[in-house]
Design goal:
Distance between the termini: 8 Å
Shape: globular
CATH class: Alpha Beta
CATH architecture: Alpha-Beta Barrel
Number of helices: 10
Number of strands: 8
Length: 279
């Protein structure tokens, strides 16, 4: 019924119970989980998980937080792995890539170069991108337009209405997750309620960005609770209430939006989509 379009299932927080986490997600109605890589060093991990679990698919990319020390050799490895993975039905795109101008110590020019070069790989192979856009919405969107990549997801979106419209105009979908469950997250909730329905997809960013019911309820104060893909179901109920629509209608819409953003998901309609055979 639901698809988590952004989950770091390979993270060490899941080492003790990873299989149980995937099972719990299925029991909650989450039958699709997109696993973005963050560095060359975990390409193999996300691929292996996607091949082990029927609910999972994967993307390959270099996260902006992993750009220190990454260089041309990493880009060459990424391009080679992407080319080799095109025959793998569980490979769906380029990500997690983007820009982060929030974390101190990240060199802006270097991460921008790596982001641009990864966009070029996405364009070369006609693949969507899973984007990290922390305090970088304008710069990320500008490079998307310049390089000509027009499919993918701006994950954990937290920009203005104007910035949201810019991404939508470029053909991107916007990812919403645990943040929208906090009453104090007024801008995110406003966007989630008012943006066109065909602009939205659901995500967790697990193990990060836990929803309010897993924390002390104070947005931005306690962030240590482990998030998991099963929480998409509760996030979806919250989003449906914000928009005043039936959750089943939201499931249909967000599945269609996920496929529009990540076309290679379409081949999993029978197992991941809201009309899947096992439903």
């Amino acid at each position: 019924m639901w698809v988590d379009t952004h989950c770091h299932l390979d993270a060490s927080e899941f080492d003790a119970d990873r299989d149980a986490v995937v099972k719990a997600a299925a029991q909650a109605g989450v039958h699709g989980i997109v696993l973005p890589a963050v560095a060359v060093s975990n390409f193999g991990a996300v691929r292996t998980l996607a091949q082990r679990h029927a609910a999972c698919v994967y993307a390959l990319g270099i996260h902006p937080l992993c750009t220190p020390g990454a260089g041309q050799a990493d880009l060459d490895r990424l391009r080679a792995e992407v080319q080799a993975s095109l025959v793998d039905p569980r490979f769906v795109g380029i990500g997690e890539i983007g820009l982060d101008f929030f974390v101190p110590g990240l060199e802006a020019d270097h991460q921008t170069w790596l982001y641009i070069e990864q966009l070029k790989i996405a364009r070369e192979f006609d693949l969507p991108v899973l984007l990290h856009v922390r305090r970088s919405q304008d710069q990320v969107a500008a490079q998307l337009r310049r390089i000509g990549v027009r499919q993918g997801i701006a994950h954990a979106f937290n920009g203005s209405e104007q910035q949201a419209a810019r991404f939508v105009d470029l053909g991107l979908k916007l990812g919403f997750g645990g943040n929208l469950t906090f009453e104090r997250a007024r801008q995110i909730r406003r966007l989630a309620a008012n943006l066109p329905l065909d602009a939205l997809v659901l995500e967790t960013d697990a193990p990060d960005i836990a929803p309010s019911w897993l924390t002390d309820g104070q947005f931005g104060e306690q962030r240590n609770a482990r998030n998991s893909p099963a929480e998409v179901a509760g996030i979806a109920v919250e989003l449906a209430a914000l928009r005043g629509i039936d959750p089943a209608a939201l499931a249909q819409a967000t599945w269609a939006n996920a496929v529009a953003a990540i076309p290679r998901l379409a081949r999993f309609a029978d197992t991941m989509g809201p009309g899947r055979a096992a439903a």
